[in-house]
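Submission checklist for the structure archive. All mandatory fields must be present; incomplete records are returned to the submitter.

[x] Identifier: Olfactory receptor
[x] Organism: Octodon degus
[x] Residue count: 306
[x] Sequence attached
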Amino acid sequence: MNNSVTKFILLGLTQDGDKQKVIFAIFLVLYLMTLLGNFVILVTIKTSQTLGSPMYFFLFYLSFADACFSSSTAPRLIVDSLSQKKIISYEECMTQVFAAHFFGCMEVFVLILMAFDRYVAICKPLRYTTIMSQRVCGMLVSLAWVGSCIHSSAQIALALQLSFCGPNVIDHYFCDLQPLLKLACMDTYVINLLVVSNSGAICMVSFITLLISYAVILYSLRSHSREGRQKALSTCASHFTVVVIFFVPCIFIYMRPATIFSVDKIVAVFYTIGTPLLNPLIYTLRNSEVKSALKKLLCGITSVDT
């Protein structure tokens, strides 16, 4: 599609100079915490002898997806908060659309795999090691990578169909399909319908699937011992918290026509920056095995230094 627009201007979260400085400081700290938290989980799982179960195998990829997902939007928000003109080229914009949807979709699929793992562990404990073998887990993660690539490729294909002839001001802090649709100088009804049926459907169907799976898990816990029930509930509560924080904002953004609301940017902050930051905290603070492995890792590092 031929375009007379070769670059876009991002408005960011605010146009107020003083507020932009505050945004720079806050989101720089949050982003660094996100990278540190997810890096710690990656290293802990990779080096620990006790975190070899499929749940932690999937948690490893969730942390990787979190770090990459946050990196697809947060660095530009941080840099732009100190810039007078927040300019992004057309090529960089398309790259950001692809990266954000690829790693966002990867997170969706990994969350589904983690829910499936908990379902098998709780509802079919005698067949758990057979069903969730290392080979099967590897295949499931590979399918998640392929599915994410297909989704993001579809999104970028839709974005490349849009024709821009001005204006070129995006009322957001990163490039995404919804704000781009508002700038296109063409009929975007069909493309918007495809965006909703793609991103929106993935979010909604995945969310409903996860809710059903956790409902089945909770129902099956009736026959477990009190100790086993409490441990399973603690694990599922962590997973469910992540699911709600991630999916509710996504559904709000993508399950609707190309209409921009004033709260969109704040809502987007929750799933692009908030969730990748909270995941390491949720999975470490509520998981005794991860905390124990982390302590061993830190003790090992300390002993080497001394």
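[x] Structure attached
Curator remark: The chain has eleven helices and three strands. Residues 7-305 form a domain with the Rhopdopsin 7-helix transmembrane proteins fold (CATH 1.20.1070.10).
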